[in-house]
Amino acid sequence: xxxxxxxxxxVVVLGLxxxxxxxxxxxxxxxDSAANSEPLEGRDAVASICEADAQRVVDRLLxxxxxxxxxxxxxxxxxxxxxxxxxxxxxxxQIISESTNQNSTLCDLNGLQQFxxxxxxxxxxxxxxxxYLVSTIRFGGNIETADIxxxxxxxxxxxxxxxxxxxxxxxxxxxxxxxxxxxxxxDISLIGAGRETTILESTAADAAIAVFGDGALRLRxxxxxxxxxxxxxxxxxxxxxxxxxxxNVRGARGDAEQGGxxxxxxxxxxxxxxxxxxxxxxxxxxxxxxxxxxDVQVSNNEVAGIAVNDRLAPVIENARILxxxxxxxxxxxxxxxxxxxxxxxxxxxxVQAGDRSAPIVRNNTIRSNGVVGVVIVGESGALIExxxxxxxxxxxxxxxxxxxxxxxxxxxxxxxxxxxxxGTSTATVTNNVVTGADVGVQxxxxxxxxxxxxxxxxxxxxxxxxxxxxxxxxxDNTITGNQSVGVLVEGESSPTISxxxxxxxxxxxxxxxxxxGSLEQSSFASQEIGIQIEDDAVPTISSNSxxxxxxxxxxxxxxxxAKILNNEITSPDTLGVGVAGxxxxxxxxxxxxxxxxxxxxxxxxxARLVDNTLTGQLVSVQVxxxxxxxxxxxxxxxxxxxxxxxxxxxGGEFRDNTIVDPGTVGxxxxxxxxxxxxxxxxxxGVIDGADPTEGSAEDGDPADKPQLVDExxxxxxxxxxxxxxxxxxxxxxxxxxxxxxxxxxxxxxxxARPDVTDNIIDGGAxxxxxxxxxxxxxxxxSGNRTRxxxxxxxxxxRASPALIDNTIEWASDVAIxxxxxxxxxxxxxxxxTGVAGLGVRAPAAPELGINSCELVAAEx
Length: 860
Known about the structure:
The protein is 12% helix and 38% strand. It is mainly beta.
């Protein structure tokens, strides 16, 4: 049916209904006849009275809206029982009844309506409330179901008020200008000829289209927009569903003082807050059906493209949500629903999930949003799955406050932050791929997320950042590329990290400030530094593998007691573990294979090294500066140069360690170093695990020595090797050690003044020297036992040690040899029988006490 034909019939029916309620019961025909018979001056009087009655209607309307106070358009439409509404409608009905009880066509229903319309047009700006109220003034009669075709210029507001459930309006091509909202309180379809050709352009305040009560709206093939300066959303739905397909929605204008405006589509369940702020009223008939938005384009709205509130759960599919000034899609309250296969681009925030909402956002492309692609706040439990999220201003995904979303299998491209997790949030972040971001994943504030199975590729600054007081559970993530830092832990953050793989970059993991937590079962390869620990950081680094680091596998500069436990370090170019600053780190159970130095302890560090195995370095351990470490129970194997070297003013304790097969020196002490070297076994040429003292000849037979790995060890053609070399001005204490297989057991030189006491020194062959003092060395050698050397003790040059109470069990040439210009004190020593005891070569001038040694004059 054409609109004009249908409207003519409806108005006749409506007019008959209202006029039949007049007090004198006259028919419309009788009233017309009486009015037409009046003289002109009578007609003017009727018009004046009718206009006055129209003003009464408008005045009553203004009074009612004024009494509403702060009630906004949304609350008004959502509330089924606004105070005073029924009285207002009754009063207006009474005025109409009284006014149309005139014997003149000038003031029948249509005449009064014209006067009312003129008065309303004089008002500054009607809004959603006044539009609704005016609709009740205009059309209070019967409604019917019809399918109406309209053209530009038809009165759409009047049409909607007369349509019952199941009706439709079909729009021809053209632009339809609306100066008041279209109010949909029943089940209505609006169908255009195409969103490029059918345009509904509204200048109305509050909304272009409002759906409420028991309404349900289907929109197809239209462009619906707002224009002008009046704040308004485009489509509002309160406690009523919308079904929108192939529709453009654009141009909403916001107002900071008027909530609810500025949204392209606002979906609300019609929940009204009670006095305590809790939701206590839901209007409409039963539970609100899910809205559906398919193949829509929602763009250029000043607040949200689509806002979903309360417990609604719309389906948004294959949509384009573009260039909205706040968020593309906002989920609030306890809303849910799904956003799928859509493009969300150019908004400030692509998708926002707040309050207790729990939407599903998956398989979308979310790009080039000014601030964040997806922001999740409040207590939201959103699911963000399998989206492409790239080129957003600050972050792809931001989780704040106490939100607990699931973020999984997303592909995240270039932007400053891939995923940032702050507040007290408890997000689960799994199996995402982040490529090219400045920071891959960040946990900050007091967030406690689970970050599992993610792949971070070509990150610029840091793959995973933990800061503030966050405590992330970081499991089975992979970081590859040239990032500055694989994982950064700072502030008071204490993440639990396991199964991490970092390949490439400058630093694999960096702990700063007071960062802590644990890192275990992870692998680091091809960085300059595998793990760096600074400031007051106190992490536990355990059971990880490190391979191919150009500077160091682990560097500890923290003043705290970091724990480095059971890690495996292979083939560092330079250094396995470096400890500096005032660190009191504990290194226990680690293995370091290859590299120039396994462990370097410098500055004022107080590290404790326990039960580590260090193999194949040029220098296995270096202790320098003022470092005072404790090394206990370590195994130092096959050093190509020196097992451990102390230099500068370093010290500490080196006790109960084993050094096997150092290339030249087992322990070297230089400069002013003064460590305590106690209870160690320093072995050369012994099968690993063999007891070097087993079979040692009590009777002096060197043939009974233990089996050597290298039968030339200790022979003349071998490189000179020294178990303990003490040089510089060292004041070390060397006591209760077992030294086996070295050409020189203990060598003291330069101006060193050590105490060498109670050591067992076994040469393993009939050559070399047990204890050798040379240069200007001094100090004390007491209570030592030597065997299987050519010479037990030798004092040379200008050395002046005190040799007291030592026992030479076996020597092939001479037990004690004193030569050069040396002036040692020799007392209480025991020499073996059958060999020269104490040989003195001039001009040496020893101070001799009582010794169990035969004195012989050696050749000068």
